[in-house]
Structure formats: structure tokens, C-alpha cells
Amino acid sequence: MNGSLVIAGLGPGNDALITPEVHAALERATDIVGYIPYVERVAARPGLTLHPSDNRVEIDRSRHALEMASEGKHVVVVSSGDPGVFAMASAVFEAVENGDAHWRDLDIHVLPGITAMLAASAACGAPLGHDFCAINLSDNLKPWVLIEKRLRLAAEADFAMAFYNPRSKSRPQGFVKALETLKNTCGDARPMIFARNVTRPDQTIRIVPLNDTTPDMADMRTVVLLGSSQTRIITRNGAPFVYTPRSVLT
Amino acid sequence: MNGSLVIAGLGPGNDALITPEVHAALERATDIVGYIPYVERVAARPGLTLHPSDNRVEIDRSRHALEMASEGKHVVVVSSGDPGVFAMASAVFEAVENGDAHWRDLDIHVLPGITAMLAASAACGAPLGHDFCAINLSDNLKPWVLIEKRLRLAAEADFAMAFYNPRSKSRPQGFVKALETLKNTCGDARPMIFARNVTRPDQTIRIVPLNDTTPDMADMRTVVLLGSSQTRIITRNGAPFVYTPRSVLT
């Protein structure tokens, strides 16, 4: 019996954003592996075993999934958003590279999903409508000096920016420093967007001029976007639209 | 009668990547507006009028969609991929900002889709698994000097990179210059991925060391990815996996 391993993106939270391709993979699965709240999004059914695990065990979780796939099971590793953006796909491939040689020849596929920054951008207009970058602000797996360097260079390149994992209880100071760096390098009132629980019933979107932002505006359920110098706000009744134009004037 | 305007992403090509949210919007629509090949992806039905238009008329197309929405129609503007990434959402908001004052108060929503770089990344592993940027290489709407500056700074920041619209018949020299800049600034053999017609039946994925790339490897149906200095290749029977690890060693 040939097993398989699919690393699938469940999108940002609303089930109406899960692709039919991912739904089909979940229906074929014998085993679901992932962080507890993501596995909870998959409906139980006969013949399906759920393997929820705690956060920060990505490599162990990946090895477990690979072992089950080599035993002939049809395993789906679930991620929030897109599995290729600061999520489980890299962890699985790292486990493959450093694991049993025959894992390399397993049937492994990544199924993309709607990543949080695109859902957040859509929720307020099109702030990522021009060149942009995505930076994970967690320094659990990389040195802070590299994050700061990327923030400075991204500002110099005048990218719109998306920030994942902006602020956790165990890392309260990182986002303080990130905002300081951005205020110093951008030096203007371009809009910053705090999108919390995006696409869920309790979604909140706050649009705040960079100069007026404070660190407590973000937590781990928030994806943060920052416009480029070209980003514009359209005032109106109700929430404004924010967008970055397609043209850059010379 | 209150009209509405939805700007919806059809994903990279395979209909199994269209979200249920977008399907529902297409079912409610009275009018579909978009570039000819994207409108062709929407099935005709009684009560639905299709308005295909040529490329490079984004603002005219947006104004037409806004006019119909103000007349009470339920208009869906379709984009390939995600409408907020180098696509129609920015064009619509630009038309709103510069158009009739009452357009600002229309019921306008953006529905995200799977953008090409995420589908391309998934197709070969997880090359965008760490910090990355997305750059549109077309200089139709911005000066080449800005593109070149962004390429240099993105290389200095050691981002993985995704390039949209790499090379068209009317702009054959841009990608020549882009490759030259990248070879000079990166100066190594990191993998470049040419994903053509990604998720379609005729999908092709080529993985080529940056130093060995040539401009003819890309056209307008290709999204191009470039690994960071950390990106790794897992050799195996069949196509290799490419991924960027979650950790950066200090």
C-alpha cells in the first residue's frame, strides 16, 4: 500500500476560503496532523484519525506524519493560511532532508491556501497592490539583527509590508523595536493595518497612521500590514478603503 | 435596488483552487467584468451578462464596473490569482478615488484568491517558506530604475523573491537586465524556479541555478521564484524538492 503526504492550507479562518482541492484531500485522508486549533477545524468521521499536537513541535510533528505516510497512510498536515508561508511545509521538507532516505521518494504534495496577508489586504482594499514583502517578526528561529536589517532595507526599497507573528506574550519587546525601526526609517504617516482574526466572525480591522501606532495594537492573532509611501486612503462613510496604486510616477 | 461590486480572485488556473466564497459571488452576479481569458473561465447562464475586455484597459474596465454597480447591478470583476496582487483591486480603488463621489459609498468587497507565487511555491516544495518579497517586473507603470533598486535591496535583505510579469514581447529587455542584476548581486547558484501555467494541465516547473538562467526561460505565463541564500534542494528520484528553512543560523 502506497501512502501519501499532503501539506494543506486551511486559509485564514473562514471555511468559505478553503479551496475544493484541500477539501478533497481532507476527504481522502486517513490521518490529520497539525497544531491543535487547526486540527479542530477538520470534522471527525469514521476512518479518520486526528493527531493534534502543541505548537513549536513542527519537526517532531513532521517526522510523525512522514512515518505514517511511509506505513501506507494518507496523511494531511494542516496549516492555517498557506502552508508555504511561515508554516508547516518548510518543516516537513526539513524533516525529509534530515530523515530516512526513503522519505525523499514519498508522494508529497503541498496544496496552497489563502494566506493571512492576502485576506487582510482584501478586507481593507488593496494595500499590497504593488511590490511588497512578507516578514515573520518572531525571533524564535532567526536573530533579531536580521529582522531589523530586513525592515530597514524593505523601507528603503519602499515595499508595502506584511508582518506575521508580530507579538507574543513570550516576545513582547520585538514589536516595540520593529515599530521604532519602521517609524525611524519611513518617517511618515503611511497607514498601518492591524487585521485581527481576519475572515472570522469577530474580525477587527484597525487602520492607524504609522506615527500613531502602539505595540499593544497587535497580538499573535493579528497580521499587520504597512503601506508603501504611495499607499492611499479613500475616506468615505464607514471604514475607509486603503490601496496602493499600480502606477508609480517618475 | 442596491447594487454591489465584488473584485474576486479566480486563482492561478485550476478551478479546484477557486474558493467557495468566490463561487458564491459568481452565482449571485448579474454582470462579470474582466480581461477576456479570465471572463472565459466563468460559465454562461441566463441572467448573467459577460463583459470581457482587452488587457491594459484596467481603469476603463473599473469605471464600467462601478457604473453598473451604481445602477443596481451585482457586478463581479474577475482577476486571475489574487485580485490584490498586481491585479484589478488597485485599479478599481483608483477609479473610485478619482470618480463620482457616490462611488465611495457603494458596497465594494475584495475576495482573495490563490496568487500565482503561492501555487508555484507549492508545486516545487516551499521556497517562499521564509521572509520573501513580490516584485512586478513590468515597467509599463513604474520606472525601470525603481525595479532595479528593489532587486538590489531585496538581494541585500536576503529575501526569497517572486517575480510577476517577467517578460513580454513588448518588453523583451527587462528580464535580461533583471537576471543580470540578480546574478551580480546574489553571486551564487541559488535555485531559480520557472513555473509556467502553474496548476493547469500543461504546467511546467524548471529549477535552474541562478548562474545558469537565461532570459528565454520566462514569458508572461511564467511566475519566477528565486530562493534566498538559505534555500535548499532535496535531490531524489524525479523532480527535486526546493525549500527555505524556518531557521536562520546565527
From TrEMBL, chains A, B:
GO terms for biological process: cobalamin biosynthetic process; methylation. It holds the Pfam family TP_methylase. The keyword S-adenosyl-L-methionine applies. CDD domains: Precorrin_3B_C17_MT. Residues 5-211 form the Tetrapyrrole methylase domain. It comes from the Bacteria. This is Precorrin-3 methyltransferase.
